[in-house]
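Notebook p. 47: complex prediction with S-adenosylmethionine.
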Amino acid sequence: MRFDVITLFPELFGPFLQHGINRRAYASGIVDVRLWPLRDHAEGNYRRVDDRPFGGGPGMVMLAEPLARCWQAVREDRLAEGAPPAPTVLFSPQGPRIDHALVEREAAGPGAILICGRYEGIDQRFIDQCVDVQLSLGDFVLSGGELAAMALLDAVARLQPGVLNDEGSHRQDSFNPALDGLLDCPHYTRPEVWQGPHGAQAVPAVLLSGHHEQIERWRRQQRLAASARLRPDLLDQARLAGRLDAEDEQWLGQLDQPGSGGL
Ligand code: SAM
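Predicted complex, structure tokens below:
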């Protein structure tokens, strides 16, 4: 899969692409990331990429013309290299929020042309004519789309076979359909008893028992409990999809009992 990133700040991507577990995906080309500096496609001595908004008001707006030139160059390059057609994505607080289902679709797709906005945003005419989908990182406003692009690339890369050290580890993560879209269970490592600022705390005994079936049951219960406490919407979705069995419901019923302290 190939992602082409159109950005005013390609240098922001350097450390991201070269460090961490996902660098394998980028270095090997499993996830082929190409950076396209927008300013290279601007004209004139100042290589201008923005201008004042019509109608007045604060801030600057990204010009449609350099964006369209850069976007066209990307499309021609993809065609010349035989890359499959891919959608043009604009990162924007106005799009639907990126979630696990979208990341899974992207991870199985041909890649995309990713556009990182800056300033007050992009001339609407470029959006109308060239953008297929807008995607948001969340209901807040960033200074630019680069962080959103990195978030999407990171999430897509870690789903590719051969990228994580342990092949199955992403299937244990929160939101994964393999675990019914619930939150992940808590994790513990050495020491068995940790002296924290609020006293000594031991690892749950079941995790030291070596009893695989009991450990799996405990983990399932913890996923249910965490989802019930922190993201009841995920629990509702799992229930609607028929993914909760009688044992799950019994456990959730106990959580609701007064005095259970959320178990
Ligand atoms: N005026 C715009 C608005 O209120 O919708 C915000 C512009 S923002 C300062 C500049 C750029 O950052 C946007 O064009 C977009 O590319 C990016 N951006 C900001 N917030 C984002 C978010 N939540 N998700 C994805 N991209 C975002």
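Notes: The two ends are 45 Å apart (CA to CA). Residues 91-94, 116-118, 120-122, 136-138, 140-145, 148 surround S-adenosylmethionine (CB under 6 Å).
Next step: compare against the earlier run before touching the bench.
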